[in-house]
Design a protein that fits this description.
Layout lengths: L1 E2 H7 L4 H8 L3 H8 L3 E2 L1 H15 L8 E2 L2 E2 L1
Length: 69
Amino acid sequence: MTTLRTYRTDLGWSVRKLAQEAGISHPVAKRAEDGEPIQASTAKAIADALSRALGREIRPSDIEGLNIL
């Protein structure tokens, strides 16, 4: 599996860009990347943003280290 940080940096995104693409706040994106607890809806928003950018399906369970409540 791949970490959120790896997906993000492979795309050339900052944490702020990840937050923008996922429709979440910058602090929430940072918490997600740091492995702090996040809501399932936040994890889905992140996975959907990655899916759009990568052109393939990414599920929250595909992102190593996400701590989903």
